[in-house]
TrEMBL record:
SUPFAM superfamilies: DNA/RNA polymerases (SSF56672), Ribonuclease H-like (SSF53098). This is Integrase catalytic domain-containing protein. The keyword Nuclease applies. One of its GO terms (biological process) is DNA integration. The keyword Transferase applies. Keywords: Endonuclease, Hydrolase, Nuclease, Nucleotidyltransferase, RNA-directed DNA polymerase, Transferase. It comes from Trifolium pratense. One of its GO terms (molecular function) is RNA-directed DNA polymerase activity. Residues 1-23 are annotated as: Disordered. Residues 575-734 form the Integrase catalytic domain.
């Protein structure tokens, strides 16, 4: 090739030698169109306003902004002066005296060493309405321009609304023999003769609309060239070696800015991510054939995919996609994460999925899940979104390309996901004439904290006590599968001995040191650091509990801890003799406002079958409770004997009590501020609330729609106390759940209508035995729990007439300096189970009962 030199040409035009045509003839053809090149700014004519016009749509509500002048260096100032002079000479700009809008210029050095003058239109852009006109997809343009033998690259002088202008001027050529991105153009043909004709037609359109080309960036009739940062050849798409070399020459990043620079440069080569620099040029993604293969890999926090095609019997990568899972996505089931990976790839590589058949290689039943008729929520949306593409699923088989997917997954996983946050262990040991002990605090990620006081049954020095505390908590951390542990101690001797700075000479301390070193090998990383005593306050406080107060007699840490946790009354188990005999009711909420202004959930649990009924309501009035009793309990399961609830006004109102009394239902109220007495409802509350949190994340207002599926899940899950699912306890058979439909389960595949009907009748005959078996199992479980619970009880009770103080609750409780107890009150009546009715000293009876845990003797 050679560069033609025209008068005034500062850059020249690249042309290619051709065996079929004399270069002088080629030169003559270019001379005919020399007027289409703008050698200087004044050579650029105006484009007809009927073709395209750019106007600023500034909102009149925005106040004009005049930026302060920025100081620039001498080199930039000279470049600015030169560029402004060119624009003034060409008549593009003119000086004004009193501007309302004023913006600074920003000089950017180009790859050839020259300066490009830009303008900081930050405030002006905010004042103008956004132009929604779309830009072409770069990946589609690159793929569309690759694999052609003859190429011509042209660069028009860019300006406002240029993509809209290009789409109008070259509407018939774009996609056929021309690809355009703003002002960059590439003409593509497979034969020389066709290329000359296409070039002539395109230059004719350029002349027709009074456009001009930049001679410094035009190349005609070449076999390879740069387009949008990639090398286009007849072989396909190749990475730009210059960009690869820039990454190779970079030093290891040592700051956030350098990491961002590295990430941005790698992003430009994302489609060649797994290849080496030597292999980038040799393995271009040539789009041959109609079938593409997709390999995918997912972890708990990241996903990666590799799109490949078969070339000469070998799989060649085309594109790599990787992404971290955000928010609720990290809690999806594995099959959902795999489905999401396919959806993400289809969105990013839409042009490939639309023009090719895609085979997803996986051993998971994604196809069966996405085609299930009873899909709901996001899975339905994904299934519909993927239905427009020709996607098939097949077993993975060979793992050649799957290894690439795993590699991208490992490389794209953020470091914080690969390495867990270290746990912090704080210890403090002490010894005196009465004995020795230690205070220990183990802190983990997400606010996990374990505090413990240790009491040693043997004589130990201060240093031995420090070692004992350290080893005890290291063993606990090992049992909790902690990987990285950072321990703190206020003993300089122990810290320096473990780090190796001090030598242990005492035989006992040598054994302790060996034990610590042996335990340290169980962790990926272990570090013991010294902290001053004033920074070790929490462990100091726990240690103080060992030696002061009730623990001062050194009865042992287990006995001391057990003494603190002992209750005042034996455990009273609640048993129901038959289904729907006794219900417990509670209220969950408030929630964010959902469908029909619902903010609360009224929840009822049957003591026998553990069946749960729930209803979202907008308010928790007595009328709503009455409707719930009638609609959800009586009309569905008949009249119960008892309904247990707390002392809320909505449950204890005269309207509700009168309604229940009219139906022969007895209301039972638990003691004030003692929710353990309504434990069945509280337990169901926790399960359902936890399920809602996991399902919804931050979108709490959607809880109404998800309540029924969660209740169904609860009903079909066996309970620990009965060993049976509530659905089985009520209906006598196991429910058919969606996972048994597709692929079908064994009982669905082998079921025969006649045999199924007979089996259902047998289940009805055996339901009483099943319920009786579950009843005895529940009784045994509660008996074991009560036996263990009661072994720690220290009984105390009050008699009628005793004076007591009751704990201040709710509105009765004053400010920070108010007493936590109020009274005295007199015991009016004692009930079974540690409940008491109180009266004032004036014989006025207090409403509701009070549990013994909220009462204590009054001493005058």
């Amino acid at each position: 090739g050679f560069r033609s030199g025209y008068p005034g040409n500062q850059g020249g035009i690249n042309m290619v030698d051709s065996a079929d045509m004399d270069p002088r003839d080629e030169f003559q053809d270019r001379q005919e169109n020399v007027d289409l090149f703008a050698w200087k700014s004044s050579d650029m004519p105006d484009i007809d306003e009927s073709v395209i016009t750019h106007k600023l749509s500034i909102s009149p509500m925005i106040k004009p902004v005049s930026q302060r002048k920025r100081n620039v260096g001498e080199e930039r100032r000279a470049a600015i002066t030169e560029e402004v002079a060119k624009l003034k000479e060409a008549g593009f700009i003119e000086e004004i005296k009193y501007p309302s809008w004023l913006a600074n210029v920003v000089m950017v050095k180009k790859a050839n060493g020259k300066w490009r003058m830009c303008v900081d239109f930050t405030y002006l852009n905010k004042a103008c309405s956004k132009d929604p006109y779309p830009l072409p997809n770069i990946d589609r343009l690159i793929d569309g321009a690759s694999g052609y033998k003859m190429l011509s690259f042209m660069d028009a002088y860019s300006g406002a609304t240029y993509q809209r202008l290009m789409d109008r001027v070259f509407s018939e050529q774009i996609g056929k023999n021309l690809e355009v991105y703003i002002e960059d153009m590439v003409i593509k043909t497979t034969e020389k003769g066709e290329h000359d004709q296409d070039l002539a037609d395109i230059l004719k359109s350029v002349r027709k609309y009074n456009m001009r080309l930049n001679p410094a960036k035009c190349s005609f009739g070449v076999q390879a060239g740069k387009f949008l940062g990639f090398i286009l050849t007849h072989r396909g798409i190749e990475a730009n070696p210059e960009k690869c070399q820039v990454i190779i020459n970079m030093r290891s990043p040592s700051s956030v800015k350098e990491v961002q620079q590295l990430t941005g440069r790698i992003a430009a080569l994302s489609r060649f991510l797994s290849c080496s620099v030597e292999g980038v040029v040799g393995v271009p993604p040539i789009m041959l054939g109609n079938v593409l293969y997709l390999y995918l890999a997912v972890l708990d926090r990241a996903m990666s995919l590799v799109l490949v095609q078969m070339i000469e019997g070998k799989e060649k990568p085309i594109y790599f996609v990787s992404r971290t899972l955000r928010g609720a996505e990290a809690k999806y089931q594995r099959i959902e994460r795999l489905s999401l990976a396919v959806v993400v790839t289809a969105r990013k590589l839409r042009q490939y999925f639309q023009s090719h058949k895609v085979v997803v290689k996986t051993d998971f039943p994604i196809k069966n899940v996405l085609r299930k008729p009873d899909l709901a929520g996001r899975m339905v949306a994904w299934s519909v979104e993927l239905s427009e593409f020709d996607i098939t699923f097949s077993p993975r088989g060979a793992i050649m390309s799957q290894i690439l997917a795993y590699f991208v997954l490992e490389m794209s996983t953020p470091p914080g996901m690969e390495k867990e946050q270290p746990w912090t262990l704080t210890v403090d040991g002490a010894s005196n004439i009465k004995g020795s002990g230690a205070g220990v605090v183990l802190e983990g990620p997400d606010g996990v904290m374990i505090e413990q006081s240790l009491r040693f049954a043997f004589k130990a020095s201060n240093n031995q006590a420090e070692y004992e505390a350290l080893m005890a908590r290291m063993k606990l951390a090992k049992e909790m599968e902690v990987k990285d542990l950072r321990a703190k101690s206020d003993s300089q001797l122990v810290t320096n001995q473990v780090s190796g700075e001090f030598q242990a000479k005492d035989p006992q301390l040598i054994k302790y040191l060996e034990g610590v070193q042996r335990l340290a090998k169980c962790f990926n990383s272990f570090e013991l650091v010294y902290v001053p005593r004033e920074q070790n306050a929490r462990a100091e406080g726990i240690l103080e509990e060992v030696h002061e107060g009730a623990c001062g007699n050194h009865i042992g840490e287990r006995a001391f801890a057990g003494k603190i946790l002992r209750t005042d009354e034996p455990l009273k188990s609640v048993l129901s003799p038959w289904p729907f005999f006794m219900w417990c009711v509670d209220i969950v909420g408030p929630f964010p406002i959902g469908t029909k202004q619902a903010r609360w959930i009224i929840l009822a649990v049957d003591y026998f079958t553990k069946w749960v009924e729930a209803e979202p309501v907008s308010s928790i009035s007595a009328e709503q409770v009455k409707i719930f009793y009638w609609k959800k309990i009586i009309c569905r399961f008949g009249l119960p004997k008892y309904i247990v609830s707390d002392n809320g006004t909505q449950f204890a109102s005269e309207k509700v009590i009168k309604f229940c009394r009219g139906k022969g239902i007895q209301n039972t109220f638990v003691s004030v501020e003692h929710p353990q007495a309504n434990g069945q409802a509280e337990s169901a509350n926790k399960v359902i609330l936890r399920a809602l949190k996991r399902k919804l994340e931050s979108k709490g207002e959607a809880y109404v729609a998800h309540l029924s599926p969660i209740l169904w899940s609860y009903h079909t899950t066996p309970q620990c106390s009965t060993g049976e699912a509530p659905y089985t306890m009520v209906y006598g058979s196991n429910a058919m759940i969606p996972v048994e439909i597709n692929p079908p389960s064994w009982r669905r595949e082998t079921s025969i209508v006649e045999e199924s009907s007979e089996a259902l009748r047998e289940n009805l005959d055996m339901i009483e035995e099943l319920r009786e078996k579950a009843h005895f199992r529940e009784f045994a479980v509660k008996q074991r729990v009560a036996r263990r619970y009661n072994s720690r009880v220290i009984r105390r009770w009050f008699r009628e007439g005793d004076l007591v103080l009751k704990r201040a609750m709710g509105k009765d409780k004053g400010g920070k300096f108010a007493s936590n107890w109020e009274g005295p009150f007199r015991i009016n009546e004692a009930f079974e189970g540690g409940a008491y009715r109180l009266e004032t000293l004036d014989r006025a009876i207090l409403p509701r009962t009070w549990n013994i845990t909220n009462l204590k003797f009054y001493y005058s």
